[in-house]
Amino acid sequence: MDKVREKLKEVFGYTQFRGNQEKIITNVMNGRNTFVIMPTGAGKSLCYQLPALLNEGTAIVISPLIALMKNQVDQLNAFGVNARFLNSTLTKTEMNRVKKDTIDGNVKLLYVAPESLTKEENINFLKQANISFVAIDEAHCISEWGHDFRPEYRRIKPIISQIGNIPIIALTATATPKVQLDIQKNLQMEEADAFKSSFNRENLYYEVRPKKEAKKQVIKFIKEHKGKSGIIYCLSRKKVEEIANLLKVNDIKAAPYHAGLDPSERMKNQDDFLNEEIDVIVATIAFGMGIDKPDVRYVIHYDTPKSIEGYYQETGRAGRDGLEGNCILFYAYKDIIKLDKFNKDKPVNERENARLLLEEMAAYAESSVCRRKQLLHYFGENYNESQCGKSMWCDICKFPPETFEGQEYVEVVLDAVDSTKSRFEVKHVVDVITGKENEYVQSYGHNELEIFGAGTDETEDFWHSVIRQTLLGGYLEKDIDKIGVVKITKKGKDFLKTPHSVILIKDKEFDESQEAEESPQGSTSKAYDENLFDILKRLRKDVSKDKNLPPYVVFQDPSLEEMATIYPTTREELARVNGVGMGKVNKFGKPFIDAIKKYVEENDIMTASDVVVKSAVNKSKTKIFIIQKIDRKVDLEEIAESAGLSFSELIDEIEHICYSGTKLNLNYYIDSIMDEERQQEVYEYFLTAKTDRIKDALEELGEDEYDEEDLRLMRVKFLSEYAN
Description:
This protein is of the alpha/beta class.
């Protein structure tokens, strides 16, 4: 192995191997089929690059992305290694030159796209070359159970067989036990020597935040990590462009990356990121596969990913140098619903697989169990959560959630799985426990089981959580052959014979209206500073008493929350807060500005000029049109028709204008639909009400007496006179 170590030092500059690298390299050099499961950043590439240099001939590297090929070939060429790629970006002349150099034995590593392998001319060319071995990178693409299935990957083995009897090394950074089995079966390498590294990335911090005011949270986070490299993942090209533009107008050096960009622009943005010309790349999931940038300090998922495999691989691009890496996921269940709708046109099997992957993703986000424990369990690895925080926390372990005694609940779950012969998915088990007499349950006679309906006192979500934690505890396991099915283990059967105490963790109430908890990073995951919010709320109460107005007339809660997020310390900054405007600044602003200034000075805090979310798009034309028409006393129905809006949408716009601090005189219209006495009754209500919610107003004033749209217009009139 002296020769191998010498080459390691000579070419790559390293004196030591990491983890299993040395064993893997020896295995490949001995001509053995090799299966490598190694997390991103642990040094997979070296496992085939070094033996390629030491063995005679050319190593073929099958890689799914052109960007990945170029990046790795550029790096190898910089090390003085003759590496080339063969893909659709080359001209006919360039392709012929690559082929000639390969046949002549001048190329040590040839990167090929799986699609290129299927062409007869390329198969014939490779038959003429001296191929040392084939490396299949991102091997999880082979498996239909994986997160990034590519049908062309399923054809790799037959094509390799046509070229010759060549050793294979398959590598992946993310594979469940089911996917691992599928990869080996498809490549006909069940006998291969497998090398599995731990999936635990100790230097990464995992956090899930509710997707509420996410744009503000993203900008604030990036400003707090100024000058550091980061990746933001979005699911659609449109969202990538929107977020990239938003960051740019907020003075953050950012660029988009997605398949819809011109290839030259896409490559420039990638190179600018690698060369630190920009700090943030906003991308679809295509970006980052194999991109060897070691100092990515944060990966933000603006949208919920399609699977835990995808999430794990993408977060793995943070902190590849072993230093700080923050992984923030903004989660909303509506993202899961949206993704599920995208699957509706897939074949039934694919659609069902995709649904199960989404359910796992939702369970990860909503669970209050240690993030690391969940991730590692998903990949078939046990982890003791007491270790979380030894180098880097996850959000759950930093702020432990509420626990409860779960012995009786675990018994119910295990009894239900055992009684149904360990043959069903989690949903079916939950249906049995909660007594759902649907056709599926009845067809198996499970409605006649003793355990049927034993858990009706708890919700379905509760039982899903108990089952997840029972899996994590090893009392249940996933059936590797039947995706989605859970089976009772020996440990589970022993528990049923001799039950004992089991402490379970209460899941988060994770709905869209909920705010996030305090972040272990020292700031808050809430979009606002709770201490300042409390100060401003007390101040609002004092001001409202002094002015003899309800507090909401001064400033509504969302406006106070925004003030407690961006810390406006000037009149102009306060006027930019939603629901304020210069009218309210003149009327109520001074004590609030003074209070914020004092708080900022005492706590050494970044102010609004650092964090304010500037809009990337000018949406004011419609609003200006409406204001001008109201000034001219044009009938509201006519304004709605001219603006292409429904009447309700017009009222929405009018309310936005009013809440932004602009005074609107709607008297000419309101006088035509409501007599003076009724107007006075509504006025008196709003003057004494604790809230301006229309629902409350309808209950108090009578739904039969007043129309919702009329009350909304009266609220605008009231706020225009008293607040603006």
